[in-house]
């Protein structure tokens, strides 16, 4: 890759001594090493673009214009648009995981923590601020999970991790029985996503009712006792 040029010392046309190309290439690598600040600027610009227009509307030229960077700067930090998309998904998922952990921090046991995770994820359907910020990304992530899972799988796992941790803890404490934490977390996410999509489509659901149905269904699947479920959802089972 690149042009090697003359294999002789340029100080003498008659010299046959080889030039040390290793030092030259090493200096070039150092010069073109990725810069965390530039990578961050590209990622921030891309995240803003995806929030506004979705992944399909993501355009590298527009991102670079927004970040005031060159194409060369982009390819120093990302090999392709797909790699940038994966990085955006992971960035947003890390922020969402922090929000979920904060929401779950007040729970006194795994059952309450799982319920808190469900509540927080239902914000995507009912909280206007969260919905406006994440709806494009959530829809795109779900689509990529079906078509190109390698792009979104790390982000998906990041969002599920707080839930998986509580399912492990509940299994250890025998609050949940005969479960596989990762599989159960994926199932719970599927139920919450179905409730979210239904709310987006109809817009006529009441949060308390959707919450009760969703939490009840998920906790029953985890083997939680009926009286405990009733306490958590605030209604008879």
UniProtKB/TrEMBL annotation:
Keyword presence, Secreted: no
A GO term, aspect molecular function: DNA-binding transcription factor activity
InterPro entries: Homeodomain-like_sf, HTH-type_TetR-like_transc_reg, HTH_TetR
Residue ranges annotated for the HTH tetR-type domain, each copy included: 36-96
DNA-binding region: 59-78
Protein keywords: DNA-binding
Record's keyword annotation contains DNA-binding: yes
Region (Disordered) residue spans: 1-24
Top-level division of the source organism's lineage: Bacteria
PANTHER family associated with the record: HTH-TYPE TRANSCRIPTIONAL REGULATOR PKSA, HTH-TYPE TRANSCRIPTIONAL REGULATOR RUTR
Protein name: TetR family transcriptional regulator
Source organism of this protein record: Mycobacterium gastri
């Amino acid at each position: 890759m690149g042009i090697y040029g003359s294999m002789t010392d340029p100080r003498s046309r008659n010299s046959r001594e080889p030039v040390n190309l290793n030092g030259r290439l090493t200096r070039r690598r150092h010069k073109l090493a990725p810069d965390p600040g530039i990578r961050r600027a590209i990622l921030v610009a891309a995240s803003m673009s995806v929030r506004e227009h979705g992944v399909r509307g993501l355009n590298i030229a527009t991102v670079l214009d927004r970040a005031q960077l060159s194409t060369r700067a982009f390819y120093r930090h990302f090999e392709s648009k797909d790699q940038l998309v994966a990085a955006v998904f992971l960035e947003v998922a890390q922020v969402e995981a922090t929000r979920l952990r904060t929401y779950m921090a007040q729970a006194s046991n795994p059952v309450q923590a799982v319920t808190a995770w469900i509540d927080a994820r239902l914000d995507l359907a009912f909280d206007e601020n969260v919905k406006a910020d994440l709806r494009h990304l959530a829809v795109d992530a779900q689509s990529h999970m079906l078509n190109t899972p390698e792009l979104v799988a790390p982000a998906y796992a990041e969002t599920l991790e707080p839930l998986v941790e509580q399912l492990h803890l509940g299994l250890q404490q025998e609050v949940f029985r005969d479960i596989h934490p990762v599989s159960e977390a994926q199932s719970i996410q599927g139920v919450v996503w179905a409730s979210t999509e239904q709310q987006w489509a109809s817009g006529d659901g009441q949060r308390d009712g959707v919450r009760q149905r969703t939490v009840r269904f998920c906790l029953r699947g985890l083997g939680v006792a009926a009286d405990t479920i009733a306490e958590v959802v605030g209604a008879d089972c």
